[in-house]
Automatic annotation (TrEMBL):
Domain Protein YjdM C-terminal: 44-114
Pfam families per UniProt: YjdM, Zn_Ribbon_YjdM
Name of this protein: Alkylphosphonate utilization protein
Domain Protein YjdM N-terminal stretches: 2-30
Biological source species: Acinetobacter equi
Signal peptide: none
Family membership: Belongs to the YjdM family.
NCBIfam families according to UniProt: phnA
């Protein structure tokens, strides 16, 4: 019998514990057939697959052009105290302040957790 992937993080390593299904990667627990959209939060991961949370510190892994400016956020720039955005339609899922640039939004695929 094949168990379903985790509805929260899509991990394939779920296991049964009595009536519950459990994900070892994000610790989400649910009963099969009882998952609603409100129960499932969006999981945001960095380029290496590490789960990001509000307040994390990340490092930029690629030179990023700043829209509307001739400036570039350089590789290795450390960004502290990030806030995650779950309702962003344009793919920018991190809200942050970068020294020398100010407030901006980043895509999680261009950062790695420190």
């Amino acid at each position: 019998m094949s168990l379903p992937n985790c509805p929260k993080c899509q991990s394939e390593y779920t296991y049964e514990d009595g009536e519950l299904l459990i994900c070892p990667e994000c610790s989400y627990e649910w009963k099969e057939g009882e998952v609603s959209e409100q129960d499932v939060e969006t999981i945001i991961k960095d380029t290496n697959g590490n789960v990001l949370v509000d307040g994390d510190t990340v490092t930029v892994i690629k030179d990023l052009k700043v829209k509307g400016s001739s400036s570039v956020v350089k590789v290795g720039t450390k960004v502290k105290n990030i806030r995650l955005l779950t309702d962003s339609a344009d793919g920018h899922d991190i809200d942050c302040k970068i020294d020398g640039f100010g407030a901006m939004k980043l895509k999680s695929e261009y950062v790695k957790k420190v």
